[in-house]
C-alpha cells in the first residue's frame, strides 16, 4: 500500500521542518514539499508533529520472576507500546544458570513468534559465563543478530555473575563487535540490608527503597566503568536512577571513555515519597527504586549534557494480586511497574512542554540513540528515504488523562493514575501499515517482526 502524509512538521534528532512523506510498502521512498505523487491513501498532518516511531530498549514481556510472570505478553505488551507511539522494543532473554544461550533463545522465540504486534529484538542476559558460553556469544552476534549482552551485578544465585566472569565476557564481546549492558547495583550490600531490615521486622515497601541506597548503584556503576576501561569493551548501563551513578560515568568521561547510559521515564517524573503510602507503595517497587528530587534534576541535566543517551521504561508489570505476594514482606514483592504505553507522551509533557529538553532531544532519547547504539540505524530511529516507515503523527495540543480505565497494558492499576498529559499519539505507522488510528489497534498479533541488529556503533 502507498501512503502520502501531507503537511506534517517532521522532527528528527537533527532536524525540524515542514514536508510531505511518501511511503510505498514498508519504506519511506520520498520526502519533500508538495510531493507530486498519488497514493492509495492520504493523511493530512497539518498542525501535527511527525517523528520516528519510538524504540524502547528495555522491556520484560512474559518474564519469569519470583515464582510468577510479568503480566504483559508479546501481544498485549507490544500493542500497548504501539498505542503510546513505540514501534520497536528490545526484550531480555534470561539464560538459566547451567543451561545454554541457545536454549534460552528458543524459549523466548516461542514467547514472541506469531504474537508480537510491534517489531522487537533481544538482549541476551548472560547469567553463567564459561568457555562454552563464550562460543555461543560469538554465534549470537554473527548468526542471530543479537549483539548486546546483559549482565547483573545483583541477584546472587539466580542472575548475578562475578567480576571475573564479567571481564572475560567483555573481552569476547569487544573482539566481535558487541556491547555489554549491566544492571549496576551492588548485590552483596543490598542482600545484607534486606536481611537486616527483615530481621528487625521492617517489612513495608519503604524498606525496599531503604535496602538499595544510592551508594549501591554509584559503586557498581563505577566498578563497571573501570572494567570496561580495562577491557576496552563498549558498555551500557541500564535504568540509571541517581546522581551518584551519573557522577561515576562523568568520571569515566574525563578519561575519554564512552559509556552509554539509559534512564527510564519513571525516574525522571516519580520520586521515593511514593513508598510512604503503606502497601500501596508496592505499585512502585522496582529495582533500582525510585530516588529523590535531586536525582531527577541530575538525570534531566545528564540528558542535556549528553551523559544520558536513552530513555526506556524497564516495563515489567504485575497485577495487584501478584504484588500482594509481598504484602507481609517487601522482599517478596515482584519488582517492576507498567510504563510501556506512557513513555513518549510523558516525555513530551514533562520534558518538552516544560522546557527541560528540546523536541530534537526528545526524538534522540526516545528513538534515535537506541537505534544507533543497538545497530539499527538508519533503518530505525529516524525519518529518511529508504528507512522503515515507522512513524508517529502526534497532536502536541491534545489533552488526556492516564487511567487504568483507558490504558491498554494488561495490568489492573496505573502507576500514573490521574496524570494529565498534553500531547497525544494520534496515528502510528509500523513499516508502512497504519497500526493505531482513532484509538484502535488495526494490526493483528504476528504483525511484528524480529529485527536482526548490526554491531555496536560508538558514534552517536
Give the assembly state of these chains: single chain
CATH class of the largest domain: Alpha Beta
Which stretches are low in confidence, meaning pLDDT under 50 for 5 or more residues running? none
Per CATH, the superfamily of the largest domain is Metal-dependent hydrolases
Class by SSE composition: alpha/beta
Q: Between the first and last Cα atoms, what is the distance in angstroms?
A: 33 Å
Q: At the third CATH level, what is the topology name of the largest domain? A: TIM Barrel
What's the number of extended β-strand segments?
A: 19
- What is the number of domains? 2
Radius of gyration: 21 Å
> Beta-sheet strand percentage?
15-25%
Overview of this structure, please?
By secondary structure, the chain is an alpha/beta fold. The chain folds into two domains: 2-51 and 383-396 and 421-441, Urease, subunit C, domain 1; 53-373, Metal-dependent hydrolases (TIM Barrel), CATH 3.20.20. Helix content is 31%, strand content 24%. The protein contains 13 helices and 19 strands. It has helices at residues 74-83, 101-112, 131-144, 163-175, 187-199, 206-210, 214-231, 243-253, 265-269, 293-305, 320-323, 343-352, 359-373, and strands spanning 2-11, 16-24, 27-32, 41-44, 49-52, 54-59, 64-65, 68-69, 86-94, 119-125, 148-152, 179-183, 235-237, 259-264, 310-312, 391-401, 420-430, 433-437, 440-441. Strands 1, 2, 3, 4, 5, 16, 17, 18 and 19 form a nine-stranded mixed β-sheet that branches. α2 links the parallel β9 and β10 (119-125). The protein is globular, with a radius of gyration of 21 Å. The protein starts with a strand and ends in a 19-residue tail after the last strand. The mean pLDDT is 97.
Amino acid at each position: 500500500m502507498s501512503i502520502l502524509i501531507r503537511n506534517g512538521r517532521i522532527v528528527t534528532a537533527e532536524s525540524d521542518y515542514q514536508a510531505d512523506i511518501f511511503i510505498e510498502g514498508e519504506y519511506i521512498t520520498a520526502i519533500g514539499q508538495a510531493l507530486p505523487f498519488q497514493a492509495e491513501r492520504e493523511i493530512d498532518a497539518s498542525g501535527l508533529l511527525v517523528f520516528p516511531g519510538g524504540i524502547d530498549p528495555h522491556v520484560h514481556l512474559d518474564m519469569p520472576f519470583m515464582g510468577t510472570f510479568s503480566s504483559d505478553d508479546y501481544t498485549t505488551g507490544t500493542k500497548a507500546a504501539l498505542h503510546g507511539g513505540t514501534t520497536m522494543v528490545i526484550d531480555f532473554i534470561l539464560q538459566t544458570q547451567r543451561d545454554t544461550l541457545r536454549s534460552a533463545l528458543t524459549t523466548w522465540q516461542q514467547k514472541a513468534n506469531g504474537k508480537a504486534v510491534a517489531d522487537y529484538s533481544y538482549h541476551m542476559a548472560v547469567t553463567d559465563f564459561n568457555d562454552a558460553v563464550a562460543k555461543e556469544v560469538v554465534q549470537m552476534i554473527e548468526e542471530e543478530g543479537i549483539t548486546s549482552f546483559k549482565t547483573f551485578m545483583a541477584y546472587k544465585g539466580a542472575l548475578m555473575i562475578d567480576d571475573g566472569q564479567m571481564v572475560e565476557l567483555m573481552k569476547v564481546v569487544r573482539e566481535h563487535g558487541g556491547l555489554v549492558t549491566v544492571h549496576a547495583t551492588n548485590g552483596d550490600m543490598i542482600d545484607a540490608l534486606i536481611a537486616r531490615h527483615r530481621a528487625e521486622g521492617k517489612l513495608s515497601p519503604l524498606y525496599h527503597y531503604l535496602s538499595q541506597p544510592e551508594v549501591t548503584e554509584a559503586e557498581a556503576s563505577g566498578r563497571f566503568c573501570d572494567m570496561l576501561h580495562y577491557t576496552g569493551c563498549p558498555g551500557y548501563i541500564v535504568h540509571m536512577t541517581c546522581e551518584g551513578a551519573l557522577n561515576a560515568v562523568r568520571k569515566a568521561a574525563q578519561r575519554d571513555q564512552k559509556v552509554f547510559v539509559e534512564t527510564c521515564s519513571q525516574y525522571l517524573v516519580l520520586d521515593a515519597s511514593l513508598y510512604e503510602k503503606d502497601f500501596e507503595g508496592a505499585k512502585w517497587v522496582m529495582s533500582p527504586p525510585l530516588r529523590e528530587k535531586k536525582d531527577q534534576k541530575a538525570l534531566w541535566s545528564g540528558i542535556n549534557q549528553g551523559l544520558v543517551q536513552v530513555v526506556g521504561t524497564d516495563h515489567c508489570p504485575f497485577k495487584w494480586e501478584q504484588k500482594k505476594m509481598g504484602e507481609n514482606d517487601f522482599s517478596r514483592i515482584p519488582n517492576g511497574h507498567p510504563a510501556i504505553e506512557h513513555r513518549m507522551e510523558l516525555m513530551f509533557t514533562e520534558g518538552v512542554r516544560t522546557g527541560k529538553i528540546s523536541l530534537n532531544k526528545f526524538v534522540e532519547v526516545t528513538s534515535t540513540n537506541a537505534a544507533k547504539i543497538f545497530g539499527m540505524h538508519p533503518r530505525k530511529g529516524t525519518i529518511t528515504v529508504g528507512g522503515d516507515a515507522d512513524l508517529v503523527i502526534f497532536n502536541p495540543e491534545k489533552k488526556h488523562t492516564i487511567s487504568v480505565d483507558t490504558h491498554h497494558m494488561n495490568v489492573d492499576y496505573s502507576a500514573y493514575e490521574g496524570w494529565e498529559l498534553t500531547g497525544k499519539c494520534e496515528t502510528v505507522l509500523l513499516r508502512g501499515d497504519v497500526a493505531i488510528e482513532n484509538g484502535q489497534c488495526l494490526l493483528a498479533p504476528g504483525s511484528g517482526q524480529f529485527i536482526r541488529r548490526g554491531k555496536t556503533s560508538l558514534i552517536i
